[in-house]
Specification:
By secondary structure, the protein is α/β, with parallel strands linked by helices. It is 35% helix and 22% strand. The chain binds iron/sulfur cluster.
Length: 335
């Protein structure tokens, strides 16, 4: 049975019309789902019984079950969901001062196989549909009020772009949740054709690219997708994105001890990103089970940051959050 959250308001109006009910019923249903966050068709009080019966025959409103919620000592909460086909995914609620960011998964597993990432080790299971991603948001919002959303959990969002795009449209719809796109960030390892499409459409969300290293050969090893879309193309598409959108790009750089954290690497990065409007997030590596990599030493991280700052970049060191419950960047493994 298809989930009604897979449809935007326009599509929902067509469904209601086909069922031979008045069009305004679609807006009422949309209201129940996104303003009142009701995930059961039976609970929609002002919808005629006959319409509810018709909908229940063909559609559902619930695609996920919460299996477990783990709380880190820093307040981060990891939610383990089971999908109807028994695949497992995770979302993470990350507190930062008074604000809460929700990190959502867009795929069950991931086929990109980045060597530093626990999700990559799972392999690709399947794309999540729009309803499942939206439900991660709705169910997480029952736990905490969400201020920002990042599409950065399990999976490569731009390899499931049609569904992610639909989610962004539905979440930001003024008739729905009215969650501004300016509070959303989409992260990618660099799927060039989709970045081009994003640059050419009028989206308001922010783009983050997991760069990891400025050395193309090393990137081939750490981020296998680099063989398809090499660093040089990522630099070129970044310039195109800047020009088309006038927005800066965030580069994510996970610091791996003695792999990509040398002064030489920092200088090379500064040189390669010259002319790109960007900011750089340095992420100390979060070690996970059986991981071959180690976290960089603190003084090395600070030195790396200083070199970039001296070269005129805005550079932030991301605070480690939720690593004690394997909820930090690169640690999600659906356990
Ligand atoms: S870092 Fe992202 S793209 Fe790479 S394997 Fe992990 S989830 Fe997939």
């Amino acid at each position: 049975m298809e989930d009604l959250k897979n449809f935007n308001l326009k599509e929902l109006k067509n469904i209601i019309k086909e069922l031979k009910f008045e069009e305004f019923r679609a807006k009422q249903i949309f209201d129940w789902i996104y303003k009142k966050k009701v995930l059961n068709i039976n609970y929609m009080k002002n919808i005629p019984l006959k319409l509810k019966d018709e909908l229940i025959k063909k559609y559902t409103l619930s695609s996920l079950n919460i299996i477990k919620i783990q709380k880190s000592k820093d307040g981060t909460q990891k939610i383990l969901f089971e999908l109807l086909d028994k695949n497992k995914i995770e979302s993470v609620l990350i507190p930062d001062n008074e604000r809460i960011t929700l990190c959502v998964s867009t795929q069950a597993g991931c086929g990109c196989n980045c060597s530093f990432c626990a999700t990559g080790k799972l392999g690709f299971k399947r794309n999540l549909n729009a309803a499942e991603i939206i439900e991660e948001f709705i169910r997480a919002s029952f736990i905490k009020k969400i201020d920002n959303i990042v599409f950065m959990g399990m999976g490569e969002p731009l390899l499931n772009w049609q569904n992610v795009k639909k989610v962004i449209g539905i979440l930001s719809d003024k008739d729905g949740l009215n969650f501004s796109q300016t509070r959303m960030t989409v992260s990618t390892v660099g799927i060039i054709p989709v970045i081009k499409e994003i640059a050419e459409e009028n989206f308001k969300f922010y783009l983050a690219i997991s760069l990891i290293t400025a050395n193309n050969d090393l990137r081939d090893r750490l981020v296998p997708f680099n063989k398809k879309y090499p660093l040089k193309e990522i630099i070129n598409i970044s310039k195109y994105y800047n020009k088309k959108t006038e927005k800066e790009i965030t580069y994510e750089y996970i610091l791996l001890k003695d792999i990509n954290d040398s002064e030489h690497e920092a200088k090379d990065l500064a040189k390669k990103l010259k002319e790109i409007k960007c900011k750089i997030n340095l992420i100390p590596y979060n070690e996970s089970e059986n991981s071959e990599f180690k976290k960089s030493d603190e003084n090395k991280i600070l030195k790396f940051q200083k070199i970039l700052i001296d070269n005129g970049y805005k550079v932030f060191i991301r605070k480690e959050k939720g690593s004690d419950i394997s909820a930090a960047c690169g640690q999600l493994a659906g356990k």
